[in-house]
Design a protein that fits this description.
Largest sheet: 4 strands, antiparallel
Strand order of the largest sheet: 3-4-5-6
Structural class: alpha+beta
Number of strands: 6
Distance between the termini: 49 Å
Number of helices: 5
Shape: globular
Helix content: 25-40%
């Protein structure tokens, strides 16, 4: 077996271990029951990111109030081939933020040659835009940040060179055009 294949297999094993550890850690830190699945964890992370806990005197328990949504914007015509982001990719991305309450919004995907490029905007906990034109890529179930802000703000391993994806790829630029809201 060539050294490049060994390196690729080693990196793949590290990614698998990180994903499993992340899912187990999320299950241990959540208030869900023992029958929690990875999609349940991702869904609870996403819903927790959009709710703010408040407590009022005279109530029997905590009340939830929806967080302020980002303002709606006019959109331009989308290129052909734009797709909705697969929910499992969006759940992985939203669970990876280094800061609580952050989310990937105004997203769109574009698939080409076995790679799905996922583009959108990073929103902070208050609903404000942290960054526009951010990009992730997924191939064979492995999701990696591609844009610099996504790499800096996400805990996902930076495998864009291993997967041979780049911000300037034609598919990446089409995904960005699909998600662009300005």
């Amino acid at each position: 077996m060539s050294q490049n294949k060994k390196i690729a297999l080693g990196i793949g094993a590290v990614i698998a271990v990180l994903l499993v550890v992340g899912l187990i850690g999320g299950a241990l830190n959540s208030d869900t029951n023992e029958d929690t699945t990875a999609s349940d964890i991702a869904a609870s992370s996403t819903s927790t990111a959009t709710e703010v806990q408040t407590s009022e005197v005279g109530t029997t328990g905590p009340q939830t109030t929806p967080a302020v949504p980002p303002p709606a914007r006019e959109t331009t015509a989308k290129p052909a081939g734009c797709e909705a982001v697969p929910s499992q990719y969006l759940a992985i991305i939203n669970a990876s933020w280094r800061r609580d309450g952050w989310s990937f919004i105004n997203t769109s995907a574009y698939a080409v040659g076995g790679t799905t490029y996922v583009a959108g905007e990073i929103a902070n906990a208050e609903g404000g835009i942290r960054s526009r034109d951010d990009l992730f890529a997924a191939r064979n179930g492995v999701v990696t940040p591609v844009s610099m802000t996504a790499r800096n703000e996400s805990d996902l391993p930076d495998l864009h060179r291993v997967l041979d994806v780049n911000f300037t790829d034609e598919g990446a630029q089409t995904a960005l055009d699909c998600a662009r809201t300005y």
